[in-house]
């Protein structure tokens, strides 16, 4: 096959941009498994740093997973019914629904530090709450809730949910039967997309958590900052490696879900 | 099926949030076992009326909906025992054909074995044998609406409500499904209310038709009543094609510029301005020299439609007279022809338009 000069120029440019983005990741991963990064790769490879991170920061990893799952549960329980109400209120086109949606987005737009500061000012004096994982969870829910509500709301608005519900009602289904038998299954793609988004965001959340955490409620990203600040570069990099191993499969799953829900034939 | 149900609407009005009345207070009685068609242009209130009966909307204060002797005004749809078929099918995409049909039965906690048998019966009833395991997105539009019909009938509703069920289908399919639907409704003897904006559908399916206009009932009657004896100008124009000629009343006929139109009852007095109406298919084309020719006109254009020919004839009035003939002949633009309308085919509107009252 013959390509023009133009093609090769474009290819070179694209590859350069890719390299620019990927090289830091590769370097970071390499640093995590190198004996001494300042000496170079010639110093040899080791899993010592990974093991050290595992020993020192294992708890932050588990904590992050627990918070992400708890965050998922809360956003499911709050976000799905909320999206349903927004979708149903005056045919889903009411001003109130739009205002509410904007308000939900606020914690995403406002710097996390500000959100965290407000939380501390308001609830900081409740020591037990302040020192517990629940406090972190509140921050995460505030931040991730719109990412659950939006995709669910979008699916509920685009599928002819209102008519489906009317059909179910005409067949004798009450409110609860309609919600669980018709609404939830037909909003499943949106719920799944929202769920993956929430978990991913919660695991990686740094801004709010950094401000809210105590040494006993440190999460993975905060631990990462801690490691970079106070230990060898190789340890911090090994930490990044572990984080990547956790987050990449989730991102792939997220892509896959959006793909399958898009190819599904819409009635 | 249960014994058929009569339905009454008493002073049912509906005003939506923006304050504009969608429905003026109407009274309507639907006889047990009849198919009543609500017909009218979009925004005339026909769908609102259907939704009031369904229990998807509730009438403004003072309105009552009665099923037989029960006042169901405050009951929501799930408590009314109605079957409903929607324009865009509203099948549950997360369920198979069989599961869709059985949804209402499952809600009623019918045992699985019984349910399976019932699904088969219903599939057969709508000519979809063996498709129970199909996914909804594997069906054609016609099949989907058959499934929707089976689903609505599965729970043996007391009344079947159909909201423009054939509108989303293409013309050929619409006709087949219409015939099947007609047969099914007659066989079941179920009270049915059918909303459509298609007059052909209304005539073919309705025992009686309610023509609606801007939130009011313009006329209630059999298809023949509506077609042959329209109660108002609106009904006359909405149903079929209507010719309208104006002139001066004489004894026994109406004098128009191009001739005369027989008019038995010229609304009493002679020498009055009046308008007569007649259907295109009632006009006879006669040779010019025949003594029977009562009107003369010039052919403006002709349309050959296969089973008939449509001619637009200029009789010197504002609007050309439309003539439809089954005679095999060729007419040319500019040709002068004679026309005759039999007296029984000529209609005249009541001077004032009282809704619900027809000229005799």
Topology:
The complex is a heterodimer of chains A (267) and B (360).
Chain A: H1 5-32, H2 48-88, H3 95-109, H4 112-123, H5 127-130, H6 133-158, H7 161-170, H8 175-186, H9 188-204, H10 207-212, H11 220-230, H12 233-263
Chain B: E1 7-15, E2 21-30, E3 35-39, H1 46-54, E4 64-67, E5 70-71, E6 82-85, H2 97-107, H3 112-125, H4 141-154, E7 159-163, H5 171-188, E8 191-196, H6 199-205, E9 208-213, E10 216-221, H7 223-228, H8 233-238, E11 243-250, E12 253-256, E13 259-262, E14 273-278, E15 284-286, E16 295-304, E17 309-314, E18 321-325, E19 336-340
Parallel strand pairs in B: 3-8, 3-9, 6-7, 7-8
Antiparallel strand pairs in B: 1-2, 1-4, 4-5, 9-10, 11-12, 11-14, 12-13, 15-19, 16-17, 16-19, 17-18
Summarize the structure.
Chain A has 267 residues and is an all-alpha fold. Chain A has helices at residues 5-32, 48-88, 95-109, 112-123, 127-130, 133-158, 161-170, 175-186, 188-204, 207-212, 220-230, 233-263. Chain B has helices at 46-54, 97-107, 112-125, 141-154, 171-188, 199-205, 223-228, 233-238; strands spanning 7-15, 21-30, 35-39, 64-67, 70-71, 82-85, 159-163, 191-196, 208-213, 216-221, 243-250, 253-256, 259-262, 273-278, 284-286, 295-304, 309-314, 321-325, 336-340.
Features:
heterodimer, A: 267 residues, mainly alpha, MetI-like fold, 0% strand, B: 360 residues, alpha+beta, Rossmann fold, OB fold (Dihydrolipoamide Acetyltransferase, E2P), 2 domains, 6-stranded mixed β-sheet, 5-stranded antiparallel β-sheet, 8 helices, 19 strands, elongated, disordered C terminus
Explain what this protein looks like in three dimensions.
The complex is a heterodimer of chains A (267) and B (360). Chain A is mostly helical. Chain A has one domain: MetI-like fold (Orthogonal Bundle), CATH 1.10.3720. Chain A is 80% helix and 0% strand. The longest helix of chain A is centred in the N-terminal third of the chain and has 41 residues. Chain A is globular. Chain A starts with a helix and ends with a helix. By secondary structure, chain B is of the alpha+beta class. Chain B has two domains: 231 residues, P-loop containing nucleotide triphosphate hydrolases (Rossmann fold), CATH 3.40.50.300; 105 residues, OB fold (Dihydrolipoamide Acetyltransferase, E2P), CATH 2.40.50.140. Chain B is built from eight helices and 19 strands. Chain B has a six-stranded mixed β-sheet with strand order 6-7-8-3-9-10, with helices on both faces. In chain B, a hairpin with a 4-residue loop joins strand 16 and strand 17. At the A-B interface, helix 7 and helix 8 of A face strand 6, helix 2 and helix 4 of B.
């Amino acid at each position: 096959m013959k390509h023009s000069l133009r093609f090769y120029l474009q290819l070179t440019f694209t590859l350069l941009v890719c390299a620019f983005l990927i090289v830091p990741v590769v370097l970071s991963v390499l640093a995590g498994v190198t004996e001494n990064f300042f000496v170079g790769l010639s110093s040899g490879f080791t899993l010592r740093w990974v093991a050290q991170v595992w020993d020192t920061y294992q708890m932050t990893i588990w904590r992050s997973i627990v918070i992400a799952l708890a965050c998922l549960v809360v956003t499911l329980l709050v976000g799905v019914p909320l999206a349903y109400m927004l979708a149903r209120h005056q045919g889903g086109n009411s001003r109130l629904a739009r205002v509410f949606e904007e308000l939900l987005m606020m914690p995403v737009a406002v710097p996390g530090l500000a959100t965290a500061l407000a939380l501390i000012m308001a609830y900081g004096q409740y020591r037990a709450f302040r020192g517990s994982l629940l406090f972190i969870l509140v921050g995460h829910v505030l931040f991730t809730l719109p990412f659950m509500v939006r995709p669910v709301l979008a699916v509920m608005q685009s599928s002819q949910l209102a008519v489906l519900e009317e059909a179910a009602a005409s067949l004798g289904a009450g409110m609860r039967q309609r919600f669980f038998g018709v609404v939830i299954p037909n909003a499943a793609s949106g719920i799944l997309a929202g769920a993956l988004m929430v978990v991913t965001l919660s695991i990686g959340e740094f801004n709010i958590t950094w401000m809210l955490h105590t040494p006993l409620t440190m999460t993975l990203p905060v631990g990462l900052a801690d490691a970079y600040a106070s230990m060898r570069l190789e340890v911090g990099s090994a930490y990044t490696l572990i984080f990547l191993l956790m987050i990449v499969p989730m991102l792939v799953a997220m892509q896959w879900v959006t793909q399958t829900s898009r190819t599904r034939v819409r009635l | 099926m249960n014994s058929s149900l009569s339905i009454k609407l008493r002073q049912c009005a509906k005003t939506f949030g923006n304050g504009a009345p969608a429905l003026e207070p109407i009274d309507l009685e639907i006889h047990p076992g009849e198919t009543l068609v609500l017909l009218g242009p979009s925004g005339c209130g026909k769908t609102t009326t259907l939704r009031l009966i369904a229990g998807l909307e509730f009438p403004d204060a003072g309105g009552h909906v009665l099923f037989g002797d029960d006042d169901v005004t405050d009951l929501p749809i799930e408590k009314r025992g109605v079957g409903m078929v929607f324009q865009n099918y509203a099948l549950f995409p997360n369920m198979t054909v069989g599961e869709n049909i059985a949804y209402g039965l499952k809600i009623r906690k019918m045992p699985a074995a019984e349910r399976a048998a019932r699904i088969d019966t219903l599939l057969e009833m709508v000519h979809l044998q063996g498709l129970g395991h199909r996914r909804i997105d594997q069906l054609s539009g016609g099949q989907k609406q058959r499934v929707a019909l089976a689903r609505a009938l599965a729970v043996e509703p007391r009344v079947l409500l159909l909201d423009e069920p054939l509108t989303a289908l293409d013309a050929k399919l619409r006709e087949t499904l219409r015939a099947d639907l007609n047969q099914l409704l007659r066989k079941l003897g179920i009270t049915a209310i059918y909303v459509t904006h298609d007059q052909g559908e209304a005539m073919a399916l309705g025992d009686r038709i309610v023509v609606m206009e801007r939130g009011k009932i313009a006329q209630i009657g059999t298809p023949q009543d509506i077609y042959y004896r329209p109660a108002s100008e609106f009904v006359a124009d909405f149903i079929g094609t209507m010719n309208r000629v104006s002139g001066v009343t004489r004894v026994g006929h109406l004098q128009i510029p191009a001739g005369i139109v027989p008019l038995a009852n010229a609304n009493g007095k002679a020498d009055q301005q009046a308008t007569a109406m007649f259907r295109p298919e009632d006009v006879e084309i006669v040779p010019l020299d025949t003594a029977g020719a009562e009107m003369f006109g010039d052919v403006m254009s002709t349309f050959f439609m296969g089973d008939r020919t449509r001619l637009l004839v200029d009789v010197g009035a504002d609007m050309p007279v439309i003539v439809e003939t089954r005679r095999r002949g060729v007419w040319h633009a500019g040709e002068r022809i004679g026309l005759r309308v039999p007296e029984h085919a000529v209609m005249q509107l009541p001077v004032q338009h009282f809704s619900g009252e027809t000229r005799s």
